[in-house]
Amino acid sequence: MKKIVSLLTLALSLVACAQPNETAFKKEALENVMLTTSNDKITFQEILKKYEGQTIVVDVWASWCSDCIKGMPKVKALQEKYPEATYLFISMDKTHEAWLAGIEKYEVKGEHYMATDGMKGIFGKSINLDWIPRYMVVDKEGKIALYKVIEADDEKLIKTLESLK
Fold first, then answer.
1. For the chain, first and last CA: distance in Å?
2. Which domain of life is it from (predicted)?
3. CATH of segment(s) 21-163
4. pTM for the whole thing?
């Protein structure tokens, strides 16, 4: 009996720690106001609407994040391998100027927007952001096909993009 209870406890703890398999963005994420490179306000929902019908690779990053910068060559390789996808970069930078400088310095190619309240803000909380870089994939129907990986060469990311070709 003790073994059964132990196994059940272990199983429940593994399930509790499992990564959520979200297929839609929460209302808070969709309504979150971000900035464009020209400093205009736009909601995340409006951003997604612009790329409707396309496979979207979302890269949550910041110019101050050393792991994000180290991962940029992998992102560029991903862009070469899957050029048909739209690459949507959501920055967690603290200032508009630092963000724009980071885009230029690291030659980040894609669509750019900035969260205005950082990693622990509304958008970050709504996607359970605990680390950057963070990659997500949205399919052509607007559903989240991949909720979380932290490496641009992660096998799950590659398999997801292959399945959406």
1. 50
2. Bacteria
3. 3.40.30.10
4. 0.86
